[in-house]
Each structure stands twice: as C-alpha cells, then as structure tokens.
Amino acid sequence: MALKVIFRTILPSCFKANASASEPKKSQVSNSSQRISLSDLSNPGSPLSVNDLSNSVIGSNLHVFTLSELKVITQNFSSSNYLGEGGFGPVHKGFIDDTTRPGLEAQPVAVKLLDLDGSQGHKEWLTEVIFLGQLRHPHLVKLIGYCCEDEHRLLVYKYMARGSLENQLFRRYSNSLPWSTRVKIAVGAAKGLAFLHGEEKQVIYRDFKASNILLDSDYTAKLSDFGLAKDGPEGDKTHVTTRVMGTQGYAAPEYIMTGHLTAMSDVYSFGVVLLELLTGRRAMDKNRPSREQSLVEWARPLLKDPQKVDRLMDPRLEGQYSMKGAKKAAALAYQCLSHNLQSRPTMSNVVEILELLVDLTDIPVGPFVYIVPNGCEKGKRNKDKENEKESNKNENGKQCKENEAEKKEDGHRRRQKGLRHRYQLRSRAVYSDTALYRTLKNPSQGGINWKNY
Ligand SMILES: Nc1ncnc2c1ncn2[C@@H]1O[C@H](COP(=O)(O)OP(=O)(O)OP(=O)(O)O)[C@@H](O)[C@H]1O
Ligand SMILES: [Mg+2]
C-alpha cells in the first residue's frame, strides 16, 4: 500500500532540471521493504513512467543536474579531469559547491557519462539510480545525483581519492599495497556485500570485482556500479533466473551454467577478489602461461594446503604479511570458491572471519634502513642541502618518469579495456568460461578443516 502512495508521486517524463525542483527532500524511505525496484517501475500495471524519478522517493535522496551544470563542473569533460572509463562510459572529476546548487556541500565529485555509442544504456543507468538512490551505507559509494536530459544519461558520485582497487593493486609503477591495507579493503568490501545481502529485500550485486571497489583517501572500500544489481529471490524461491551477465573470471560457475542467481554468486566473486588481494594477480590474465591464466584454477590446489599458502602470496609484499592471517584468508577464499553452494559462507560469516585478521601482529619487520645523521658544520650543511636538492631532483625526475609510465600503462589498459568491454558486453549473455565448466564437472570440494589454519 505504502508503495502505491509513493508511486503516484512520480511524474511522467524526463525533464530539464531546475534548481528548485532538484533539491533533495528528506528521505521518505522508512524501511527497506518499501524499496522501489526496477521491476516495480517496469510493471505494465504501474501508472509510472521510468523516466522521471525526481519527485519519487529516489529523487528525494538525489540532486538532479542539468547537462550544462555538469559541463561547468567538469570543465567541459576536459581530458585533464579524466579518471577512467568502463562499460558505461567515461568518468571525469569535477567540483561542486553551493554556487552549483544552494546548500550543496563543497566537494569533489566523479561524473560518469553514458557513452551513447556503447553497449550499456538507459536500463543500466536507471538500475544504478534506483538502487543507489535508496541504499545508503558506509561501504557503498554515495550517489549524489544524476542527469537525464534528452538521450543523455549521467551519474554524479562522491569522488573517491584513491580510485579503484584494480588501479591500486595491479598498477606496476606504484608502491605495493601493504598487508594491513589489503585486510582493511577486504573487510570493508565484505561489509558492503553483507549489507546488501542482509537487506529486508535482499540485493544481489552481481558484478563484484576489483574495478568496482572504490577507495577513499584512507582506503575505506566502497562498492560502486549497481548497473547489474538484482533483487534477491522472494518468498519460498531459492534463486532468481536471469540472463548470465557479469565479468569473466569473477562470475560463479553455477550461475554461468544455469542462469540461477543467488547471493552465493556474490560470495564466489568475493572469493576471487580475496585471491587477487592475496596474490596480486588478476582474476583473468591472458598474458600468463595458459595454466595460470585463470587465477582460481591456478590457486585452488595451493589454497587447499596451508603449507603451500606462501607460494600464493604476492611477491610485492616482500614477505611482510601475517602468516596466520594469510592462511586464514586463503582458507576463507577456498570456502567462498567452493562449487557446492552450501559450503560457501554467508557474507556476514566472511566479515566475522576477516575481522579476526585485523589485529594479527605476526608480521615480519621490514628491512633495516640506516639513516645518515645530519652533520653540524656549516659547510657540511650546505653540502647536505645541495645533495638534498640533487636527490629531490632525482626523486622528482623518478616520480615524473613513474607517473609518465603509469599514464602510458593506463592508456594502454584503457584501450584494452575498451576492447575487452565490447567483447564482454557483446557476449554477456551466456558466455562460456571453459575453465570453470571443467572444474564444475569435477566438484571435489568439501568443507574446510579450520584446525589446519
Ligand atoms: N566515484 C569515483 N571516484 C573516483 N574515481 C572513480 C569513481 N567512479 C569511477 N571512478 C574511476 O573511473 C574508472 C571507471 O569506472 P567504471 O565503474 O565506469 O568502470 P570499470 O569499473 O573500470 O569497468 P566496468 O564497466 O566493468 O565496471 C574507475 O576505474 C575509477 O578509476
Ligand atoms: Mg565499475
């Protein structure tokens, strides 16, 4: 009943926003059972148009921006503000304050622009607005607003200073993420998923992967990209049947084979990301020898045996991790990746287990560094200053070279990603992941003996 009242307040068309109409109003959502879902909006019996959300419960949490406002905010989507690009389209940094809209907190934002020639469209945009317009949690990225003008579709998010986990973990020229940061990220991302699964009206995220985990300045993990999210099964149903969509290397084998989606598919994908954090390897890496291209295939035998866990670990950690923690995390990943759904833990179990890792202190101390004491003679001080300048110059030069190299690598990856995306999206429906199919035919997974860890 409550839903119907809310539905009638939705206006029938997409419109050009004006400042007064776009003020977010106090949320009318009191509990998650009232959450509007995509199916509610596409229900032919509903008097709603999906196009205009501004006066709905969703609009009450979000600002509606005009395209020209977003052009100003991003300096006309200038290349200097470019942050990256995925299947939806390019993302640019911008800055909003109360000159943009009275009452708006001054802050940097990330503006995602739908690529009109791309394979995603209104549906993904709308799904994102519907979910993130209603769900709020410290481990979900905050959607600040959107723009829906003619055929243009944009999304405005809180800016995440450290970009995506994918960028942080796999970038060749930056410092490696320390163990404690990896654990923090794993816990945060797990909490985000646990929140979605624990909602009264369960949400299945369906696209859990390193590029969709964004990192705040203090490495707080936030899930982004709800374009593929789905409401979980209702009543006595055990699963939702859908077209198979997602990203190769992360999607659960049973979902790929049957199209049966459950929250346990997200748990599998979480296991893949946990493995990426442990190993520093990508879920799928065509540049590796064929036996090692699928991370799960390569790692599974090592995960199973606590004595082999050190062989898994990212060499960039240089041994500086808690061995106890690594073994527990490996065992947890093994469980998450089980072919038997019943053997996978729930996301709230995962959070409990990972939180135990935070306080483990059996981390070897780093290499000993001797710091030359400062001299006190004037001449030496001057010499030291000169040396310092020289070394700063070298350091800056090195940093510049590294930045240049990173930019080049990013450009290369972006081009590859563009291709990968087009491939992935064209073949999104029931793509075949032969490696996973093979292992599914041989489901030798059992429960895990935690005593060994
Ligand atoms: N809120 C944000 N703050 C900072 N950077 C962001 C934000 N949102 C996205 N980005 C940057 O933009 C890049 C592209 O993001 P996007 O989610 O569109 O694509 P993707 O996750 O890389 O690919 P996919 O389409 O498969 O999800 C991210 O890798 C990230 O670096
Ligand atoms: Mg993404």
**Biggest sheet character:** 6 strands, mixed
For the record, the CATH architecture of the largest domain stands as Orthogonal Bundle
DSSP strand count = 12
Give the count of helical stretches.
14
Would you list the SSEs in sequence order as H and E?
Answer: HHEHEEEHEEHHEEEEEHEHHHHHHH
| Global morphology | globular
Cross-sheet strand order for the largest sheet: 1-5-6-4-3-2
Mean pLDDT over the residues = 78
Give the domain tally.
3
N- to C-terminal distance = 51 Å
CATH class of the largest domain: Mainly Alpha
Q: Work out the radius of gyration.
A: 24 Å
| Protein structure class | alpha+beta
List keywords for this structure.
453 residues; 3 domains; binds adenosine-5'-triphosphate; alpha+beta; binds magnesium ion; 6-stranded mixed β-sheet; Phosphorylase Kinase, domain 1; Transferase(Phosphotransferase), domain 1
Question: How would you portray this structure in words?
Answer:
With 453 residues, the chain is of the alpha+beta class. It has helices at 2-7, 38-42, 67-73, 122-132, 165-170, 179-198, 253-258, 263-279, 295-304, 309-312, 323-336, 347-357, 378-426, 434-440, and strands at 63-64, 82-85, 90-96, 107-113, 143-149, 152-158, 203-204, 213-215, 221-223, 230-231, 240-241, 260-261. Strands 1-5-6-4-3-2 form a six-stranded mixed beta sheet, sandwiched between helices. A hairpin with a 4-residue loop joins strand 2 and strand 3 (90-96). Helix 6 packs antiparallel against helix 8. The protein is globular and about 60 Å long. Mean pLDDT is 78; it is low at 1-13, 15-22, 25-31, 373-407 and 414-447.
